[in-house]
Amino acid sequence: MTFKLALAATALALAGIAGTATAQPSLYYVWKHKATGKTMCNPEAIDANWVKVSGPYSDANCSIKEPE
Q1: How far apart are CA 56 and CA 63, in angstroms?
Q2: Residue 27: what pLDDT?
């Protein structure tokens, strides 16, 4: 019984830690493909063929500009 109690207490403690951990929201940027000129809004470039055009933005549509 003591093992089950210890296991339950450990699980509750880990759940509490996970619940209080807060992640920083992602910042989004407008990226432009070097060859095609296509643009996208993403936190990171997919590969080296993408160049950052503008940002940061606070939303995934790149419509709400973050203050500088």
Answers
A1: 10
A2: 96
Residue 9, both tokens: 């207490």
Q: CB atoms < 10 A from the CB of 46, how many?
A: 10
Query: What's the residue count for the chain?
Result: 68
Three-state SS at 12: helix
Handedness of CA 20, 21, 26, 27 (dihedral sign): positive
Q: 56 Cβ partners below 8 Å, 6+ apart?
A: 27, 28, 29, 65, 66
pLDDT mean by block of 10 residues, the chain; 68 residues: 62 54 85 97 96 97 92
- Tokens 């995934």: give the residue: 60
Residue 63 is predicted with a pLDDT of: 96
Amino acid (one-letter) located at 60: A
For residue 36, what are its two tokens? 């095609």
